[in-house]
Amino acid sequence: MKAQRELSRKQPGSNNRARARREVARVHARITDRRRDHLHQVSTGLVRENQTVVIEDLQVRGMLANHSLACALGDASWSQFRTMLEYEAAWCGREVIVIDRGFPSSKTCPACGRLTAKKPLHVRTWACAGCNTTHVRDVNAAKNIKVAGLVASACGAGVRPQRETSRTGQSARKQEPSTARPKENPGLQDEE
């Protein structure tokens, strides 16, 4: 980045270096704000459009060890995205299902269910030996994660959990006046 290069050329302890350091901090703050805004828009859109969102529990720290992917993964802010997604879902009364990281999502054929051997990351497409279906790795993983999420929501908690009450104890929904009439007690009927 240009501001970072200019900072490295300034004399340590000078006013120009302090000014350049503030400029670098301002640029980094702007990048952080843009990233946070984008993640907020994506998480809000996903939660508003879907009743249930299924994600995979990724081990981001282990993925960052791959130096060719580390920069892109660091910019993606996966943990911040997950936090925002869970917060938005709780606020809107939606459900977020997290699939275990050990689930073989990219190695399982969604057509026949056959499990294949571990593949290196550069293999983007593969054909199932059981049913001869060709799969794109990421699309296949998304299909398998969706199916696992549907199974988890059918076997686990309700698909539509109720929204929690606010701090005041009042329900967050608008309360309509009740039109139901109380039941009459048959033992207290008027006799004429």
TrEMBL record:
Organism name: Halosaccharopolyspora lacisalsi
Question: Which keywords, in A-to-Z order, does the entry hold?
Answer: DNA recombination, DNA-binding, Transposition
Which GO molecular function annotations are given, in alphabetical order?
A: DNA binding
| Cross-referenced InterPro entries | Cas12f1-like_TNB (IPR010095), RNA-guided_DNA_endo/Transpos (IPR051399), Transposase (IPR001959)
The UniProt record lists the Cas12f1-like TNB domain at 78-145
Q: Which domain of life is it from?
A: Bacteria
* Spans annotated as Disordered: 1-22, 158-192
BP GO terms, sorted? DNA recombination; transposition
Q: Which family does it belong to?
A: In the C-terminal section; belongs to the transposase 35 family. In the N-terminal section; belongs to the transposase 2 family.
Q: What is this protein called?
A: IS605 OrfB family transposase
> Could you read off the lineage of the organism from its UniProt record?
Bacteria, Bacillati, Actinomycetota, Actinomycetes, Pseudonocardiales
Under the heading NCBIfam families, the entry gives: guided_TnpB, IS200/IS605 family accessory protein TnpB-like domain
Q: Identify the residues that the record assigns to the Probable transposase IS891/IS1136/IS1341 domain, covering every copy.
A: 2-64
Record field: compositional bias (Basic and acidic residues): 173-184
Q: Do you know which Pfam families this protein is assigned to?
A: Cas12f1-like_TNB, OrfB_IS605
Query: Could you confirm whether the keyword DNA-binding appears in this record?
Result: yes
